[in-house]
Structure to design on (424 residues):
């Protein structure tokens, strides 16, 4: 048995002495979440600028168009904040709040989708592309669905990768949950921009393609979180 | 913030700046309590020694993750708990550890319970509690954490932490009374 002296054992001291470079303290969870805002806004804005705003914005009105997206964006940052809290050893939120946030985020996406469809049930892929392309998209709606799903998954994936870099020092006891949370935040932030650009509001498209993209970023975040957690366990192996 | 907390925070800031002496001082101040906590969690002194070493190694590797706005003790105790749980690979193993241990772990004697029974009876009494109750009870009464701090470490609400500690103390009293009656 190890001596119960408050002196660090030699093996531990050797490991400490090997790397004593000064480090900069991490920001607090809220600041860390707010740090994500500019990049998330940038990616969402690029999508909006690249595809252009949907043609029925006037039908939706500012509240359902921009207001609903702003709400989703705020919710996305809240999820990243919860993930940051989850990653702090003494800062975890009650489990119920974590699950409630995840359920609320899902319900908000479904509710906004239903509301958008009931207000403006557009199925015409009127994009700023040659008419022939729009015709082709109209004939094969799955292409539009695939494009939206892949596009928002890729954009969300970029955000997830950035978030996981910020969370690489995460000390979460449930790294998969923390990863899923920031993955959900990334997916939601992208969807906030994407829904204003995508001209199709049918339920199968909005929930199937856009929803699947959010689920994909959740899974990606969870996998990265899990990997980082396992990696931490490996590098945290006792010094010999 | 108490003087001790402030001192630990200052040490942590110096440690983040690269001071070996600050690390040694943090270790000297925190390791006895963390070792007892790990001993309680793992139910085995030798495992606790290994986990203690790993906790401080993790703390070193993750020292940048500490923000000076945090209180140091709950942060390091929370980290120790993470190390314990991650070493078991899954939180569900937590229950199995308590079910499977054969010998009584080295539980500290609660000041409140000291008058109610012998050291051995208190250890047996705590071993009878559910793992959740015993942990909340010890974190509050033995290591002096507030219910808010315990909530942050365990991922529960402060009210739930209070309820666990309170039920744990009530159950401990019942167990100690029954030991006393059996003795009489």
């Amino acid at each position: 048995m190890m001596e119960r002296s408050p002196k660090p054992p030699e093996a531990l001291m050797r490991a400490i002495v090997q790397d004593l470079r000064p480090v900069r303290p991490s920001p607090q969870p809220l600041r860390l979440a707010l740090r994500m805002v500019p990049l998330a806004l940038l990616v969402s804005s690029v999508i909006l600028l690249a595809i252009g705003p949907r043609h029925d914005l006037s039908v939706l009105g500012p509240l359902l168009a921009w207001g609903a997206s702003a709400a989703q964006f705020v919710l996305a940052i809240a999820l990243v904040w919860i993930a940051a809290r989850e990653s702090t050893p003494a800062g975890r939120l009650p489990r119920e709040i974590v699950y409630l946030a995840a359920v609320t985020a899902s319900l908000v996406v479904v509710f906004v989708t239903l509301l958008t469809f009931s207000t403006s049930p557009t199925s015409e892929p009127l994009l700023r592309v040659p008419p022939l392309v729009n015709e082709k998209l109209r004939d094969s709606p799955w292409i539009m669905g695939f494009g939206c799903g892949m596009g928002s998954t890729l954009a969300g994936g970029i955000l997830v990768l950035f978030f996981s870099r910020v969370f690489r020092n995460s000390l979460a006891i449930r790294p998969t949950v923390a990863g899923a949370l920031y993955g959900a935040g990334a997916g939601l932030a992208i969807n906030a921009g994407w829904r204003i650009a995508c001209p199709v509001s049918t339920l199968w498209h909005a929930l199937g393609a856009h929803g699947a993209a959010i689920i994909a970023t959740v899974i990606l975040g969870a996998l990265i979180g899990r990997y980082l957690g396992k990696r931490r366990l490996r590098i945290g192996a006792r010094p010999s | 913030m108490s003087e001790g907390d402030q001192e630990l925070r200052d040490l942590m800031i110096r440690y983040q700046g690269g001071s070996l002496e600050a690390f040694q001082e943090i270790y000297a101040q925190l390791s006895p309590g963390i070792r007892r906590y790990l001993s309680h969690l793992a139910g085995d002194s030798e495992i606790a020694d290994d986990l203690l070493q790993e906790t401080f190694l993790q703390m070193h590797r993750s020292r940048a993750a500490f923000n000076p706005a945090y209180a140091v003790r709950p942060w390091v105790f929370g980290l120790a708990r993470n190390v314990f749980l991650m070493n078991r690979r899954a939180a569900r193993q937590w229950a199995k550890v308590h079910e499977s241990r054969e010998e009584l772990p080295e539980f500290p004697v609660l000041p409140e319970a000291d008058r109610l029974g012998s050291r051995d009876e208190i250890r047996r009494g705590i071993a009878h509690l559910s793992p959740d109750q015993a942990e909340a009870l010890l974190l509050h009464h033995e290591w002096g954490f507030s219910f808010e701090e315990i909530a942050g470490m365990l991922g529960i609400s402060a009210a739930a932490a209070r309820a666990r500690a309170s039920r744990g103390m009530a159950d401990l009293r019942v167990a100690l009374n029954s030991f006393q009656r059996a003795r009489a």
In short: The CA atoms of residues 1 and 196 of chain A lie 64 Å apart. Helices of chain A lie at 10-18, 29-51, 57-86, 95-119, 131-139, 141-166, 175-197, 203-235. The mean pLDDT of chain A is 87.
